Amino acid sequence: MEFQTKVAIVVAEDLQSWQKLNVVSFLTSGIVGQSPQIIGEIYIDKSGKEYSPLSIQPTIILKTSREKLQTILQRAKSKEITVALYIEDMFATGHDSANRETVRAYKTENLPVVGIGIRAEKKIVDKVTRGAKLHE
After folding, report:
1. I need a surface site. Which of 6, 27, 38, 114 has the fewest CB within 10 A?
2. Sheet containing strand 84-87, strands side by side
3. What span, in angstroms and rounded, lies between the C-alpha atoms of 12 and 126?
4. What percent of the chain has pLDDT over 70?
5. Rg (CA), the chain
6. CATH code of the domain occupying 5-134
7. What is the Cα–Cα distance from 21 to 27, expressed in whole angstroms?
8. CA torsion, points 28, 18, 93, 98, in degrees to nearest 10?
9. What is the average pLDDT score of the chain?
10. d(CA 72, CA 52)
11. Contact assessment for residue 113 and residue 85, using Cβ atoms and an 8 Å cutoff
């Protein structure tokens, strides 16, 4: 299946492994929340047991510096792409409304960004994320 769009999650390369996984999980949920059409059908095994549907669109995971994340955020905003955002302060909160309050405390250019998730046309995603490297 050929997709016209691309999903990219970009994380700060200096995070601990558990933090990167946490950020990827939250950002993926943000992408799916804005694009529910990318969720497929329920999985059923040979025994008839059902499993949750998954995204039908592959996701690329990239890494970069925190400085470059700010550049990627600015590029995405200039192209009017809806961004899933994770900032460093969110590691210290315990619930969704506290996460929103931490973001509200910063101007865009001062956000301590540690992760960004986007879904847009392939070429646009490639331009916006230019300079980030494939996460190993």
Report:
1. 38
2. 84-87, 113-121, 5-12, 59-64, 133-134
3. 18
4. 99
5. 16
6. 3.40.1490.10
7. 10
8. -10
9. 95
10. 32
11. yes
Tokens at residue 13, please? 């390369």
Per-residue pLDDT of 49-91, as tens digits, reads 999 999 999 899 999 999 999 999 999 999 999 999 999 999 9
User: What would the two tokens of residue 69 be?
Assistant: 């994340």
pLDDT band (50, 70, 90) for residue 94: confident
b/e for 44-67, b at 16 or more Cβ within 10 A? eeeeeeeeeeeeebebebbbbeee
What is the DSSP secondary structure assignment for residue 41, as one 8-state letter? P
pLDDT of residue 18: 96
- Report the C-alpha gap between 35 and 50 in whole angstroms: 23
Closest listed residue to residue 65, CA positions, set 11, 28, 107: 11
Q: Is the pLDDT of residue 44 over 80?
A: yes
Domain ranges of the chain: 5-134
Amino acid at 27: L
| pLDDT greater than 80 at residue 12 | yes
Alpha carbon distance, N-terminus to C-terminus of the chain: 25
The pLDDT of residue 1 is above 80: no
